[in-house]
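queue> holo job accepted (flavin mononucleotide)
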Amino acid sequence: MKGLMIIGSAQQNSHTRALGQYLIGQFNTHDCCDLEIFDLAEKPIHTLDFTGVNEVPEAYQQHAKELQEKAREADFFILGTPNYHGTFSGNLKNALDHLTMDDFKMKPVGLVCNSGGIVSSEPLSHLRVVVRTLLGIAVPTQIATHDHDYGKTEDGKRYLKDEEFQLRARLFVDQIVSFVNNAPYDHLK
Ligand SMILES: Cc1cc2nc3c(=O)[nH]c(=O)nc-3n(C[C@H](O)[C@H](O)[C@H](O)COP(=O)(O)O)c2cc1C
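queue> job finished
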């Protein structure tokens, strides 16, 4: 089974990305599921625009097409976002606006976010509403970290350092794997 993690941070080497890397490692311990990252800071896409007035760079169009193809193929999703002004990022919302119910219908969706100020799960509550609207199944366990939960390697790469969050990440992955394998909502597709 294939999973797609969409990361909505505006910066490369984000904390959210580091969490995604940790999640990939956990999915690799399960034979059934692989997780691929689509990091919008590395593959930016254009703002959704039906006016035809604005010229869209070729690379942005390519990234959007790639996102749509990967989303259609995915068996499950993880949505990862920084906390921006008390909610999830505009970049992530824009990416979701390029997708449809056909991409999400009855697929399990895990939600994770990172805050730099006061740690908050509110961006995830907001995302739950969006996932429901897209007919996805947002799983109950979610992860809301803070910058302090991460370390940096000598070459400047971020990684998830906090052991309690490492444990939570493992439980989070186990739960998604269980949803994917049992597919409790598959008959409703
Ligand atoms: C536009 C913007 C708004 C932000 N708003 C909040 C906020 O409301 N609360 C908070 O705790 N941090 C806020 N931050 C800080 C980010 O959450 C912080 O930089 C975090 O490290 C981002 O995670 P990332 O590295 O995964 O992108 C904001 C940052 C930006 C750029």
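queue> The radius of gyration is 16 Å.
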